[in-house]
User: Fold N-acetyl-gamma-glutamyl-phosphate reductase from Pontivivens ytuae.
Amino acid sequence: MTKTVAIIGASGYTGAELIRLIATHPDLEIGALCADRKAGMRLAEVFPHLRHLDLPELTKVDTVDWSGIDLAFAALPHGTSQQIVAAIPERVKVIDLSAGFRLSDTAVYERWYGDAHRAPELQKTAVYGLSEFYRDDIRAARLVAGTGCNAATGMFALLPLLQAGVIDPDEIIIDMVCGVSGAGRAAKEAMLHSEVSEGTHAYGLPQHRHTSEFDEQFGKAAGRPVEVTFTPHLMPANRGILATCHVRGDADEIHATLAERYGPEPFCEVLPMGEAPATRHVRGSNFVHVGVVGDRRSGRVRVFAALDNLTKGSSGQAVQNANLMLGLDETAGLMLAPLFP
Amino acid sequence: MTKTVAIIGASGYTGAELIRLIATHPDLEIGALCADRKAGMRLAEVFPHLRHLDLPELTKVDTVDWSGIDLAFAALPHGTSQQIVAAIPERVKVIDLSAGFRLSDTAVYERWYGDAHRAPELQKTAVYGLSEFYRDDIRAARLVAGTGCNAATGMFALLPLLQAGVIDPDEIIIDMVCGVSGAGRAAKEAMLHSEVSEGTHAYGLPQHRHTSEFDEQFGKAAGRPVEVTFTPHLMPANRGILATCHVRGDADEIHATLAERYGPEPFCEVLPMGEAPATRHVRGSNFVHVGVVGDRRSGRVRVFAALDNLTKGSSGQAVQNANLMLGLDETAGLMLAPLFP
Amino acid sequence: MTKTVAIIGASGYTGAELIRLIATHPDLEIGALCADRKAGMRLAEVFPHLRHLDLPELTKVDTVDWSGIDLAFAALPHGTSQQIVAAIPERVKVIDLSAGFRLSDTAVYERWYGDAHRAPELQKTAVYGLSEFYRDDIRAARLVAGTGCNAATGMFALLPLLQAGVIDPDEIIIDMVCGVSGAGRAAKEAMLHSEVSEGTHAYGLPQHRHTSEFDEQFGKAAGRPVEVTFTPHLMPANRGILATCHVRGDADEIHATLAERYGPEPFCEVLPMGEAPATRHVRGSNFVHVGVVGDRRSGRVRVFAALDNLTKGSSGQAVQNANLMLGLDETAGLMLAPLFP
Amino acid sequence: MTKTVAIIGASGYTGAELIRLIATHPDLEIGALCADRKAGMRLAEVFPHLRHLDLPELTKVDTVDWSGIDLAFAALPHGTSQQIVAAIPERVKVIDLSAGFRLSDTAVYERWYGDAHRAPELQKTAVYGLSEFYRDDIRAARLVAGTGCNAATGMFALLPLLQAGVIDPDEIIIDMVCGVSGAGRAAKEAMLHSEVSEGTHAYGLPQHRHTSEFDEQFGKAAGRPVEVTFTPHLMPANRGILATCHVRGDADEIHATLAERYGPEPFCEVLPMGEAPATRHVRGSNFVHVGVVGDRRSGRVRVFAALDNLTKGSSGQAVQNANLMLGLDETAGLMLAPLFP
Assistant:
């Protein structure tokens, strides 16, 4: 029951990560690879690490023959993505990895992203792609919006706690330490090795755009408006996001809530009470590690979540959603163990 | 007016950093280098980067001729340091870089460090070595206790704010991202390149020992007990600590307080309002960069401080203190610009 | 037709890499995990990145019930390995990843490794585990000796050329740049992040031990003694070895020889003439990329090979050999695409 | 006797390195900083690590008042540099850090760099800036051409050996491992952290441009044409170049030749026979470490040289040359010890 997918935006990191995962996926095959500016090239020229694969040549998206495609992954900048997704035939399911369809309210989108939404009607049909929390909706969806990678990390730490009402929604502080691949493959001075290596700094100040996803999802979970303080930091490593969340609540209750919630989840590992996760222990995998550590101040607790931004944070999540949307085993192709060291 | 110093514990990173700084210091020369287990070796065998210097051979500390020594730097583990410092002749000034003399209350020391203080009488004479805050005491001191490098970073961000009463002492959360050289040169599995690189994790949980310094210094500054939540994270870089401090207060007042307090300080740079510092911009230098960024939630503010743990956080601070104790220009030998990239 | 394997030395990096690969191998399951000093622990405590796997507890090797084991991987120091392999029941096939059985002449072994061979009889039965060159012998073997990871890299570049007689055997210079994980997980000062990062140096001077493997294999391929100059360098990256081999011959003939030899090989990719490979494009995979670049001096050619020392250089190679020895598809479990970035 | 300098191209890495070194230079002060595209900005906005310095604002080069300037450093791309240097008043001494004036024969320049030389008359007056080998010429020069950083590294290893005739000029192979800052600060995909980190590859194939400097200087030293094979590799570290040179000669004679030649040199350290240098032990300094290691094959020898590409390889060398040209102590401002770790 092999299904055929197209990847639009195959020359970026999330595109390459999709191809890497699909390369050993038992039920998916790649029918089209699009990268407008590199149309006509072989993927091996763009991503030499994938040169052993027998893949279609890169094409422009408007030349794709959609007749044999079951599902399209769009890994494009958000504005472009809205336009391109709108042009895909209705019978092809779509997973969009950009920020183009993550916020249900287009006015909120426009406030955070600074330009008008180019596919407002389509937005109404989009399901938020946090697989573990929208599984049934995703199964039934035609359009799924992949989460922000930072947003996903914070949500794995906190969504079950807000849903269960075991933390104070007004006292949430989220600090993150994030790898550089999240910034993508575009050539920017700030992302040069010489600029990024050997140090750290906070970025996205004063308010990183993924904050908008926290607002919507946390508010929904808590049943009331929630505003968090979110401060991401760049670290000199390619992959990985660690969320350190400061909350008020009872550490044991928090740990029990997470352990129960994630017990049946194949990709969510809750560490023993008092242990904290490391990003390097999930690298290249679809796993998320969650930990809870109390504080000497009664009522203050640190909740940690670690995942790989390119995998569980975007392309692995997308494949998980594709599995759901296409009626495949949810874990198919995704049980690759993390790469360490 | 050249002064002569001894370095005890010259085979560790803080020892090497002292030698690096003294190498171009106009008024200090090295009279003795001690490293018990490496006695008899040349420093170039232990630290090839210093091979161009004409230095005394490494010796055991008990063979030092103290007669020509004006000041000793002790860069040793804390228990050992208490014993060795206690044996240095009274006329020799001492700067201890360990945790051995940082806490004025030996009972508190014993609670946090787990063993009995070995020089409790000497402790009474020790001055806390945060140069910008204890300058006059340091000038007059015979024994100065170098600060914890994490502790120093947090204090540069917050001490002036607690002294001025412009933040709520009950609502302080300090996250840090720290380079690995702070763990020293001892061979530990957890500090191998393969273990540390390409990722991050929180360490020192549930309560890092430097928390005890925050307790004492913040309490003194606020005039009442202050308990902070402190969570350090390891990053794959050798040098640098970034403190991200979450406080309640008015962002403008906080920025103004820091700008005024640090205006005359030669090593403390306050960034323009809304900007955040990066550790790579202070690497190898005695500078600390401080930044203030508001939050969308009224009353919440992020205060950042970045310094090099081996320089401003320990050995550079120690040289600054030596300058004060020996009547030299406080900045002598310390105006080296950061190394970037 | 699932086969059951034991891993002896499961607490080191090559042990962990075996487990990572077997985790998604369709035909292998793990029956025993041994790590003498960590017996009684769960693997998740030693390698948190493998915590999602349902694995046997770590045991001492002498408590293993061999009755259900088809094949044992020994990932131990070489002296120890000779002893332990000698005690494994004859009906269990063995792949040794140490240097214990790589050299057919025990006198040569003793000269390079400095101690007496502890299983000289067994040595006579050992097959050298370079899969692509000893495939038939490996299929029939009971004991296979995994290659040195540096040795394998150089051989992928040069063995076909020496066999075909297209390069001068007296004019070979091999420089390598190697990742740090090859040094293993033992705590050594020289392998600390602070020591290794941000620089490079040549190591294993004047003659690295893997030179002995070149001597034997290159001599066999050329039909006469061959002595190369081999100089490995450490780079601040965990995985990967790049061999830059300087030879005399005709660049086009060299490229054609390699392209023809590796054409049918599933794991060996020969780049287009004039292109050079990068270690980051094979990371975490069983692929080796080979490239040929001429020089302006007629008759001088550079032949490059890049592989992942933990995968194609040791544990991936071992699984490939296990597939051969157990009658499985040679590529089973090994088609994982490289992890980039 | 303070001298005033201008830095043209202050927004690149070599420009920043010049400022870093001059910041603590006792006899130099900065009179003008030029960066055409960033004119009007403060240097702290471009290089926050230099924010503690009191520096002139960035200006366009054509607005510089040359009347108070003794010497100009030009840190620009080579074509641009030829034009701009040609427009500097004759009484201002000039050190050009580009490739614009390194090759005495403009036809050779045009062959390697692919465009016509824009200041051929000026070229005739240029002195090659390898301080230790052209000291007297540099003292007398008005225009000095800084060397390529790779070229300098190879020359420190081999020039004295070719001059002394102790190695075979026809049998030289130079492999290098180089840090990424040599590629400059321009935003290029290939220099992103995600692309560069965690691996290595050879670059500049088939013939890196610095080969042309080897041709000229080695030919001059040997008194006959010399063609080397030169293969640089990129490593994931910002600073440092390690040259591994394979030569034919007598190891002891080679070591003795280097030790004697560099004995009086303040910045050249020859390691004990059999030891190899590491780039991390010269980082941020003007030192070059040279080592000699024999090979088991009689007559083959490895000669290593390590330096910091931004310091001894370009900006440190430039300051050393400025000291010579301005009649200052040659080592003034340059005795900064390397930064390790």
In short: The two ends of chain B are 36 Å apart (CA to CA). Chain B has two domains: 3-125, 149-309. Residues 149-309 of chain B form a domain with the Dihydrodipicolinate Reductase; domain 2 fold (CATH 3.30.360.10).
